[in-house]
Design a protein that fits this description.
By secondary structure, the protein is α/β, with parallel strands linked by helices. The chain has one domain: ATPase, V1 complex, subunit F (Rossmann fold). The chain is 45% helix and 22% strand. Strand 1, helix 1 and strand 2 form a beta-alpha-beta unit. The longest helix has 13 residues. It is globular and about 40 Å long. It starts with a strand and ends with a helix.
């Protein structure tokens, strides 16, 4: 099982240095193309995508986020200022409709 990373330019360098196949994206079209490439590679088990890159194709990411079959999609923070993120309870309420 291999990793594939889709990242904004500022966040991609660390993934490249660690040997993860990485596509830099700065537009919706580039992000969508990179995502489709990652899905087409047979041995990719985990797609790592930065928040900035995911924001370009949020609807497409959400379609694959909670699937039980590979690849697993892991969204990681982008470099730069931290914006407000959902809490675990907010995420659970969104996923299963139950508030804790």
């Amino acid at each position: 099982m291999n990793f594939f990373c889709i990242a904004d330019k500022e966040s991609s360098l660390g993934f490249k240095f660690s040997g993860v196949e990485t596509r830099e994206v700065s537009t919706k079209a580039e992000a969508l193309e990179a995502f489709n490439v990652a899905l087409a590679i047979e041995n990719v088990g985990i797609i790592i995508i930065t928040e900035k890159a995911a924001s370009f194709i949020r609807e497409k990411i959400n379609q694959f986020l909670y699937r039980e079959e590979p690849p697993l999609i892991l969204e990681v923070p982008s470099r730069g200022p931290v914006k407000k993120r959902k809490s675990v309870s907010e995420s659970l309420k969104e996923m299963i409709g139950i508030s804790i």
